């Protein structure tokens, strides 16, 4: 029986203590703690890494503070379009969805794609049709409405600007804010299996059906029992172009690098040279944990059967 570990994130970016009220900071910490314990309790009872990360992400998707599920941002059309992916490192099986609407927990739908379809990636109406067929829980538009997300969108909806994520600050500060709203989880279970998952509402005021790195296997999400599980959060276009999550696995497999060194090279060297901002979380097949960011903050938490425990926001 191996040590078991779970790591989660709730997005990265320009997250500064000076911009945060004590109440809001406490709410984020509480949300992270609730999600990490939801996942950890699955592992503790001998559950699979896949089920553990799914449990953690459902908690984050149900929390309006995070840009995924219930807290998803508004698109140019004034609706929510959500993306998610999950990968099982023991088999390299994966499921992903993009541009789905009214799905309460997109991570549940991505898991259904992985387990019960012959495909990896479904999008738009087809993904929603599959959700109905599989009995995945749907919600009306009102469920996804939150006033502060609406206010963010209203501030920029008549422009061609988009916002990389939520802000709780004054609206005139919105466009100088860079927060990458994504949630993710990676885990190693008692049987030595690794899994990774990511879910997001994307960018405020996004148009043309834009899709970021979160649901793209190898870019925002990747898991392989031989190496690691990775979930990313950042400027998705750059993470796609650098195949960021898979690159960490490759550096470990082909160069023999440690999880931390491989993540540092991707996040603080390769991505920086491309102008890519954000971060990633990772776990390797020995239960080592790494949480690396090149931005001012990243909502994150980790728990391990070895006793390691951390919940943090700022760099």
From TrEMBL:
Keywords assigned: Autocatalytic cleavage, Hydrolase, Protease
Active site annotation, chain numbering: 182 (nucleophile)
Listed Gene3D superfamilies: (Glycosyl)asparaginase
Any one GO MF annotation of this record: peptidase activity
Listed GO biological process terms: proteolysis
Site, Cleavage: residue positions: 181-182
Record flagged with keyword Magnesium: no
Pfam families noted in UniProt: Asparaginase_2
Binding of substrate, residues: 210-213, 233-236
InterPro entries: Ntn_hydrolases_N, Peptidase_T2
UniProt-listed PANTHER family: L-ASPARAGINASE (PTHR10188), N(4)-(BETA-N-ACETYLGLUCOSAMINYL)-L-ASPARAGINASE (PTHR10188:SF6)
Protein's name in the database: Isoaspartyl peptidase
């Amino acid at each position: 029986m191996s040590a078991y570990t779970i790591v989660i994130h709730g997005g990265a970016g320009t997250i500064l203590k000076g911009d945060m009220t004590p109440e809001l900071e406490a709410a984020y910490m509480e949300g992270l703690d609730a999600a990490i314990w939801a996942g950890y309790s699955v592992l503790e009872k001998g559950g699979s890494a896949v089920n553990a990360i799914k449990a953690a992400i459902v908690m984050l998707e149900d929390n309006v503070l995070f840009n995924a599920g219930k807290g998803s941002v508004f698109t140019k059309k004034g609706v929510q379009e959500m993306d998610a992916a999950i990968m099982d490192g023991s088999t390299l099986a994966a499921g992903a969805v993009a541009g789905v609407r009214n799905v309460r927990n997109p991570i549940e739908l991505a898991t259904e794609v992985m387990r019960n379809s012959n495909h990896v990636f479904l999008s738009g109406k087809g993904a929603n049709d599959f959700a109905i067929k599989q009995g995945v829980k749907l919600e009306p538009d009102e469920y996804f409405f939150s006033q502060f997300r609406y206010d963010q969108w209203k501030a920029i909806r008549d422009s061609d600007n988009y916002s990389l994520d939520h802000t709780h600050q004054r609206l005139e500060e919105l466009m100088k804010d860079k927060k990458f709203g994504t949630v993710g989880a990676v885990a190693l279970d008692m049987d030595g299996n690794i899994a990774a998952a990511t879910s997001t509402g994307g960018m405020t005021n996004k148009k043309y059906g834009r899709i970021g790195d979160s649901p793209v296997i190898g870019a925002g999400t990747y898991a392989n029992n031989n190496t690691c599980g990775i979930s990313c959060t950042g400027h998705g276009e750059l993470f796609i172009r650098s195949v960021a999550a898979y690159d960490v696995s490759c550096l470990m497999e082909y160069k023999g690098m440690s999880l931390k060194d491989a993540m540092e090279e991707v996040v603080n060297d390769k991505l920086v040279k491309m102008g890519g901002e954000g971060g990633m979380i990772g776990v390797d097949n020995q239960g080592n944990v790494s949480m690396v960011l090149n931005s001012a903050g990243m909502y994150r938490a980790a728990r391990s059967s070895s006793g390691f425990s951390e919940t943090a926001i700022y760099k």
